[in-house]
Each structure stands twice: as structure tokens, then as C-alpha cells.
Amino acid sequence: MNVVTGLQKPSSGKVYIQGYDVAKNMSQARHAIAYCPQRDMIFADLTVWEHLLYIAAVKQVPLKSLRSAAQETLALVNLEEEAEVLSQDLKRGEMKRLSIGMAIIAKPQIVLIDEPTSGLDSTSTRNVWDILLHVRGASTLLLSTHDMTEADVVADRIVALTTGIIVCNASPNYLKNIYGKCSVLILHVLLLAENSLVAILLTKLMLSRLMLGKPDKEQG
């Protein structure tokens, strides 16, 4: 996420946002995106309403539209009853919803969210998912998660990485059709000197059957 947003230079490769190389044209690329990090970046002594007004102004929402943008976002993230509450007094789930609201208030073309429900209970998680599904209808949504249920609910495309390498790029339905039916294999191997090669070969065979490979071009 830091590379995509231009906060960190890539060790290799390039990232393009709306045709702009993030490393070379950072300001143009950032104009199209909003970022919600895993750690909520809020001001303890501002209320929810003040946060939204402030961020809307920073993101150059027209002055005449500030209040309406804040009110619309307040309703979207379901924080109307907490509008005058200081952020330091919010519950964990409410704080995350405020962070998402701050990211989307200016209606960016692309929204990046890092681990949106990490540390939340099931009810708060469901509330965040509802917001993300709404956001997905208006903006391109790119999120990182370790929760496959979350990816299935929110995403229409799942990209899996292993040590920085893309090992899967497919729709949730495609992955469920291919890998949804699972089998359990219990393998007992005696690791002695005379059969260690057999153990290695058997292990490689097992991994080749279980590893998630790249779907072909006919994928969903």
C-alpha cells in the first residue's frame, strides 16, 4: 500500500495510477486516490463532524458543499448520532468508520484501504463491509486483507501474494469453484537416511497438488 500511494519507493517495477507513474508523477497520481491506513489517523480533540469538515476542506471540496458532503458521509458511515462526540471517545468500530469516511468524503476515483476490519468484532466488521460495498459502487476499491471471508464478501477480484509474487488473480466465484471442494491428506513419512529422497519427492508431490497456482485465461 505504501508503494501504491507513493509513501515508499518500489524496490523494482512501477505503479501507474490513471496513467501516471507514481514514482515520477506523485502529485498527479495522488489526486485520484484516497488512502485509509490500518492505523486510524485521527485528532483526539476533534469531534466526528469536525473531522469530516476539516478533511473535506483539505481535499478541496468546494466551500459551499462542505456541510452537505460532511452530512452525506456522516450518514453513509452511520455516525450521525456520534457527530458531536470527540474521536478519543469513539469505540474501535466507530473510529474505523470515521477513518473510512475521511477517505471517501471527496469522492475519489480510487480508494485504498489497508486491513479495514483488523481487530474488530463481528458486528463492527459487518458494518464496515456494508460501507465498503457502497463505496465499491462509486469508486475503484483496493483493499488488503488476511480474511478470505472479507475478500469474498467485498471484492469482485482477488489477488493473492506470496513473498511479493502474485500467485493468484481471479474472481471469488472462480476460486470457490476450483478450490471450494477440499480433501484432507495425511502423510506419514519416516525421515531416515535411506529414504530421505523418497520423503522429499513425496512432499514435493503433495505441495504440487495443494499449491494455489495461477488460473488460466479462461478464469472468471
From TrEMBL:
GO terms for molecular function: ABC-type transporter activity; ATP binding; ATP hydrolysis activity; lipid transporter activity. Residues 69-96 form a coiled coil. It comes from the Eukaryota. Pfam families: ABC_tran (PF00005). Transmembrane segments: none annotated. Keywords: Coiled coil. Residues 1-188 form the ABC transporter domain. InterPro entries: ABC_transporter-like_ATP-bd, ABCA, P-loop_NTPase. One of its GO terms (cellular component) is membrane. This is ABC transporter domain-containing protein.
